[in-house]
């Protein structure tokens, strides 16, 4: 249904543009810009919908200084829900998306041709526009479970995220750093909503989820049953740091979820990526609209548990190369040295 609505809206925009082409003489030409996101219950989708609304400014719209939309003139951005970061990047490779929101570790793997991208080779023309809301690894178990560490998951029924999601790939890496191979576990590949329901019914022993705390699926589940988060620390966490230089130490603060104490874990950024050959002026305008339009207000209003990142955090560091259009904006804004 949601996909049908998106297609219908696109058709409507195209019809309007065609019918009003003469009336809108002097308006910038219409440009569609697709943004790949994650499942509708995850942070990436909430970010993509806010961004698409904030950077868009269809032909005929009032200028920003006259109470109109403060997006890029002529641009219509459309958020598309997909399985996750890996699926998004493969869709970009097939030409189905102009851009995508992906986790930093997945962008790093794609750029270097590692992990799930080893058969496609290094995607060296991948570029980043911005860092967005950081996301944290959650490993959730019932409070009464006898599972007290990741190594205790041996032989258990675990959801490691949907196929095509970055959560799945990171989960398997975390399990390996704890000396657990897929054959040692009963793995399920589920999206956050179904995985939470399965844990509640007793059909799962644990679930992995990567998202900006508090993750709605976990917060809602914590209101239905008592939960714990497994810590990720010590040698396994240090191994992750050696694999991905941008992964950072994190602590999910006690009380973030009902009844759950502070738990050590890791976090990383969500990055907005495009191809290097995307028009520099367009990307400069998009980057400016990302940070100077209504994007943050839209996100914060619709996601009261979260806060849109500060532009100073948004300047990409320790990641794949930045798109030159984004670089130009950050330099002109005084956020990046020339």
From TrEMBL:
Keyword Signal among UniProt keywords: yes
Pfam families: NMT1_3
Matches recorded under SUPFAM superfamilies: Periplasmic binding protein-like II
Top-level taxon: Bacteria
Keywords: Signal
CDD domains on file: PBP2_TAXI_TRAP (cd13520)
Signal peptide range in chain numbering: 1-25
Protein name: TRAP transporter TAXI family solute receptor
UniProt organism field: Aestuariispira insulae
Taxonomy of the source species: Bacteria, Pseudomonadati, Pseudomonadota, Alphaproteobacteria, Rhodospirillales
């Amino acid at each position: 249904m949601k996909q049908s609505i998106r297609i219908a809206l696109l058709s409507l925009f195209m019809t309007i543009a065609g019918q009003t082409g003469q009336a809108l003489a002097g308006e910038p030409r219409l440009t569609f810009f697709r943004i790949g996101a994650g499942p509708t219950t995850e942070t990436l989708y909430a970010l993509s919908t806010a961004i698409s609304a904030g950077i868009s400014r269809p032909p005929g719209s009032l200028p920003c200084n006259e109470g109109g939309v403060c997006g890029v003139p002529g641009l219509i951005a459309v958020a598309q829900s997909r399985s996750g970061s890996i699926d998004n990047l493969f869709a970009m490779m097939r030409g189905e998306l102009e851009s995508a929101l992906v986790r930093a570790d997945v962008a790093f793997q794609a750029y270097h041709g590692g992990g799930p991208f080893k058969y496609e080779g290094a995607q060296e023309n991948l570029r980043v526009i911005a860092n967005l809301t950081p996301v944290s690894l959650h490993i959730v178990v019932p409070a009464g479970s006898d599972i007290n560490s990741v190594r205790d998951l041996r032989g258990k029924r675990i959801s490691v995220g949907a196929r095509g999601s970055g959560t799945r790939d990171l989960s398997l890496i975390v399990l390996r750093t704890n000396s657990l191979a897929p054959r040692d576990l009963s793995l399920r590949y589920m999206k956050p909503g179904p995985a939470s329901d399965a844990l509640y019914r007793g059909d799962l022993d644990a679930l992995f989820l990567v998202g900006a705390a508090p993750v709605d699926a976990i917060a809602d589940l914590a209101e239905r049953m008592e939960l714990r988060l497994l810590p990720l620390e010590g040698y396994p966490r240090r191994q992750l740091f050696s694999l991905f230089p941008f992964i950072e130490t994190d602590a999910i603060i006690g009380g973030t979820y009902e009844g759950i104490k502070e738990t050590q874990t890791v976090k990383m950024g969500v990055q907005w990526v495009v191809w290097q050959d995307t028009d520099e002026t367009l990307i400069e305008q998009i980057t400016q609209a990302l940070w100077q339009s209504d994007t943050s207000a839209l996100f914060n209003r619709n996601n009261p548990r979260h806060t849109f990142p500060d532009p100073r955090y948004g300047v990409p560091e320790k990641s794949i190369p930045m798109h030159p259009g984004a670089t130009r904006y950050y330099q002109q804004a005084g956020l990046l040295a020339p």
